């Protein structure tokens, strides 16, 4: 199996520090954008207004499994905003727990919009609308004041002019933006820098603290983001997105790695991310061990017999 990898590593100023392929390759950000989509809510004082906890904030950034712990946080956010879950416009799908969690984990028999992997983000969207007295029924319309505020803050956080953000509609029906990998990495480097950022410092710090304190809420049982953030021991802020996108940012370094697998292959994405972190010198032996399964080095048959090997072919 081969897939074209495009890693880009930048600092908070957008300087490219390492690369393989074109670091400015333009790609849709998918769910990696979620922490930045939460900026308008935090910047307007939404956390204090509704009394959101750090766990609640982690859910705003989540692509979660739809486990009870995730649904509980969605209920808390919506309850504090005084909105019923029926207002969520993310749609409904079989919870990701049954697809992505370890063998033996069963998805709930009954489920609704709260189990959707993007329901945390959408709960934050609704809370922003309540906070600002804006209509709830069309909060996903690109012309809605919420989506205009998101576009503005995403542009500022990533250093991309608003008119250069190429819009598409994500799987949860929310606007999403394509941008250069280097810009996505820059946005996460700033997120990880927290209070050191002169524009979004308090909001970035709150989001990074929430994600690293509750990685299980950002993703869920057996998932990529929880394992990576736990391996990072509080230093890494990570977020994976659909179609082969992942970002890992280091709080201590003020740098971030953004990676895109052109064909969207998840196994290649995870393996390439671990390899890139190793090449960058971000891993010590204690971190390599828990991340080794994500390298997917052995290709096995259905019975589990090794039939091949998987090796990285790129150098940063």
CATH class label: Alpha Beta
Main structural class: alpha+beta
Query: How much helical structure, as a percent, in the residues?
Result: 40-55%
Biggest sheet, strands in spatial order? 2-1-8-7-6
In the CATH hierarchy, the architecture is: 3-Layer(aba) Sandwich
Q: Which oligomeric form is depicted?
A: single chain
Mean pLDDT: 94
CATH third-tier fold name: Beta-lactamase
Instruction: Tell the overall outline.
Output: globular
Number of strands: 10
Sheet with most strands: 5 strands, antiparallel
Radius of gyration: 19 Å
How many helical elements?
A: 14
Task: Tell me about this structure.
The chain is an alpha+beta fold and 316 residues long. It has a single domain (5-309), classed as Beta-lactamase. It contains 14 helices and 10 strands. It has helices at residues 34-37, 39-43, 46-50, 54-60, 68-81, 97-100, 119-132, 145-158, 181-193, 201-213, 215-218, 224-231, 266-280, 285-291, and strands at residues 5-11, 16-19, 26-28, 166-169, 175-180, 236-241, 245-250, 255-261, 298-300, 306-309. It has a 5-stranded antiparallel beta sheet, with helices on both faces. A 3-stranded antiparallel beta sheet has the order 3-5-4. Strands 9-10 form a two-stranded antiparallel ribbon. A hairpin with a 4-residue loop joins strand 1 and strand 2. The two termini are 20 Å apart. The model has no long low-confidence stretch (mean pLDDT 94).
